Inverse folding.
């Protein structure tokens, strides 16, 4: 009887094996269909949405060349002149040099501001830590980074350290607040399940809470880098000898409006590229998060 039963089981398993293989193949095909297209395909898909931008550029070109007089045209040069100014700055190397200096300051300040992640986790997880730090941080947070510029110049002088301090203030608080929110919004059942399975407090914090809060932390990083990039330009307008903010301010003194607009466009495009890079990286690291879609 046992041999007969074993034979029937083996036959059943053999019959089900092709079905399992077909199911696995179907599942793989469905995943392939749902897989997001490559970055090149997505970029090309967005090009067709630039119709309004092209229309505005054409209108700008017409108004600057046909409507404005020569004196007013100096204040609002046409896009063709701005393209020529951008080419001049590229050939001279000034645009690349100022851009790299600004990016370097942003990167250094961002590395400092990452201290907001462990601090935010501690404030969101331990009430005693939050009770001690919240009054101080909530008093400092409403102060705009630009309000610190005079004091930062007195502390650090005019240079990279002063600029990095202003950028740090712009990046730090968005990361901190989003980290605290992400930790506090972790599903309590996940924490209870981990503790029931014998996980220690640090294991729960590291393997459950931090990972569940990552999408919110990344959102804070995106916001913080944007605010820091804006604060960087403002800081360079006042106290810097290089950078895109310095380029804009220097062009103002010689009435090169085309250089000013080139600097502004470079700031916008770089900010867009930074945000798109973070989203692409996190989309691969956190494919399960809807926030990264």
């Amino acid at each position: 009887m046992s041999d007969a039963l074993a034979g029937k089981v083996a036959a059943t398993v053999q019959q089900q094996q092709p079905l399992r293989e077909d199911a696995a193949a179907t599942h793989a095909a469905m995943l392939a269909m749902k897989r997001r297209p490559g970055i090149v395909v997505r970029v090309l898909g967005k090009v067709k949405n630039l119709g309004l931008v092209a229309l505005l550029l054409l209108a700008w070109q017409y108004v600057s060349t046909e409507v404005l007089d020569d004196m007013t045209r100096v204040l609002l040069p046409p896009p063709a002149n701005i393209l020529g100014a951008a080419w001049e700055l590229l050939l001279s190397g000034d645009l690349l040099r100022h851009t790299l200096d600004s990016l370097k300051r942003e990167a250094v300040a961002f590395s400092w501001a990452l201290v907001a992640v462990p601090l935010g986790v501690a404030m969101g997880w331990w009430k005693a830590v939050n009770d001690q730090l919240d009054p101080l941080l909530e008093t400092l947070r409403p102060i705009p980074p630009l309000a610190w510029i005079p004091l930062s110049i007195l502390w650090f002088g005019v240079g990279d350290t002063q600029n990095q301090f202003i950028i740090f203030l712009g990046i730090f608080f968005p990361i901190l607040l989003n980290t605290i929110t992400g930790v506090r919004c972790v599903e309590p059942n996940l924490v209870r399940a981990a503790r029931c399975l014998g996980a220690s407090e640090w294991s729960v914090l590291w393997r459950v809470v931090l990972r569940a809060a990552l999408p919110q932390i990344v959102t804070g990083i995106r916001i913080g880098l944007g605010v820091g990039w804006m604060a960087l330009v403002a800081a360079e307008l006042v106290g810097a000898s290089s950078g895109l903010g310095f380029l804009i301010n220097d062009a103002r003194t010689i009435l090169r409006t085309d250089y000013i607009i080139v600097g502004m466009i470079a700031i916008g495009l770089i900010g867009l590229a930074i945000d798109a890079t973070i989203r692409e990286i996190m989309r691969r690291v956190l494919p399960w998060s809807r926030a990264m879609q």
